[in-house]
Amino acid sequence: MSTSAVNEPTYKQAAPARARPVDALILLALMLLLWQAVGVWTSGIAVAPPLPTLAYLVNLLQTSLFWDNAAATLEAFLIAFAISAVAGLALGLIFGTRPFASDVAEPILSGFYTIPKVTLYPVVLLVFGLGISAKIAFGVMHGLVPVVLFTLGAVRSLPPVLVRTARVLRLSRRQTMLWVLLPACLPDIVGGLRISFSLSLLGVLIGEMFSSQRGLGFLLVSGIAQHNVLLSTSVITMIVIVAIVANMAMLHLSRRLTHRSK
Amino acid sequence: MTRALALLIVRSVVLAGPILLLEFGCRAGYVDPNSIIPPSDMIASMVEHIGSGDLNESMVQTFSTIALAFGLSVAIGTLSGAVIHRIARLRDMVDPLLASYYSVPTFIFYPVLVALLGLGKAPLVVLGILSAMPAVIISTLSGLDSVPPVLLKLARIQRLGPALTLWWIILPSALPRLFSGFKLALSYSLIGVIAGEFILSGSGLGFAISFAYQSFDNRAMYGIMLFVLLTAVVANGVLYAWEGRLRRRRSKG
């Protein structure tokens, strides 16, 4: 149910058992081939081919130019993600245990989730000023809602016997949340955190691309502006790798948790 | 019924409360008018800008780009979804791609698309397709998966041709999932196009907002922003309601 609420096309793999490493390698090879083709076709204007990019990236990773900007992005992102996770979890647990509150909140939150939030960035800038706090706020605007909706959905679809047991054991509200609800919902919560991770990152990067003097988004835009194709392609490659690796790690974690709870 | 009514009232209060509070805060001088203007002024500015007609060109530009991106995403996405569903090996191969596609912020490709295709409609359409099409592919796959095998056997027994099978058997079962994919595609292409216009572009509603921001014209900025957000909410709301009706009709049988 959380799928429709959060509007995320959660993809169920047909049969993970069937997945062969060869297929993954073929896919990777095809992607690299496509990259090479686009790189050769547009070399010098837009995309650098894979090999020169990787060589440049290795050099770039030894410069302070890269790490200063990466640190700026990482700082804003980590704070935004932490706020989204903690606040989202708290709100989700609070709404989830109160049916009326969750019925009020859910459509409003899913509505907010589907609007083009970029248009609100100027407001964020006007309220928070230029700087890291605006990026953080924008990251939270993107990342908070999925955690709330996933947690809320997970709590609502819990077997009622768990809550009743907690009542029988006379657990306080806080103890119930901490020792019953949280562990039982953990797999879904990790699913929400996974989406929140990529959306907070998106929020921070868009913020940096629109108006900022630091960060990977800024580095990307300045690479394009200076016609430094290698720089922009390297930054994109780096972001894509980090995003995919983090996503796969969290997918793995949530599968293991689901497995354990069954 | 009383619960539904209570829900409606509380929801309206939750939505209207902050707006009234903001209105009050602005009028009483607690909120700096250089950062946020009163909501009533936003509405007035929106009405002025739409009425004056100077937004017409941007609206045509933006909405036609969104329509193009959405239409292409649906057409190409459904077709490729059907092809991928047919060929098991291909599906095994693209599985990991589809599973992690939405973790990559597609938007970072936009500057590259601009460098590649020039500043105009083309990079925006491509960006819209890049953000919307995979959702259509994913929902096509899950829609085709949800067709009960027994119905396909029935079609074979009745000796239906491929076209008739598609029309009478596959589409009715797959439609709800397909439709939720289309709904996602609309909101994703809308977000993609407006975000692209906003960051780097020379025309369109997104550009109008960022232009107003950069020329410190807060009144215009809030007016256009309100219009864009209302349009998005109405478009999503219509599809949401339509989807609900589709689902109810289906569950009735």
Topology overview:
The complex is a heterodimer of chains A (262) and B (253).
Chain A: H1 2-6, H2 21-41, H3 50-60, H4 64-96, H5 99-114, H6 121-128, H7 132-156, H8 160-168, H9 173-210, H10 216-225, H11 229-261
Chain B: H1 2-28, H2 39-52, H3 56-86, H4 88-101, H5 110-117, H6 121-145, H7 149-157, H8 162-199, H9 205-214, H10 218-252
Helix pairs in contact in B: 2-10, 3-6, 3-8, 3-9, 5-6, 6-8, 8-9, 8-10, 9-10
Architecture overview:
The complex is a heterodimer of chains A (262) and B (253). By secondary structure, chain A is mainly α. Chain A is built from 11 helices and no strands. By secondary structure, chain B is mostly helical. Chain B has 10 helices and no strands. Chain B has helices at 2-28, 39-52, 56-86, 88-101, 110-117, 121-145, 149-157, 162-199, 205-214, 218-252. In chain B, helix 2 (39-52) crosses helix 10 (218-252). Chain B starts with a helix and ends with a helix. At the A-B interface, helix 2, helix 5, helix 6, helix 9 and helix 10 of A face helix 1, helix 4, helix 5, helix 6 and helix 8 of B.
Defining traits:
heterodimer, A: mainly alpha, MetI-like fold, 80% helix, B: 253 residues, mainly alpha, 10 helices, 0% strand
Describe the structure concisely:
With 262 residues, chain A is an all-alpha fold. Helices cover 80% and strands 0% of the residues of chain A. Chain B has a single domain, classed as Orthogonal Bundle (MetI-like fold), CATH 1.10.3720.10.
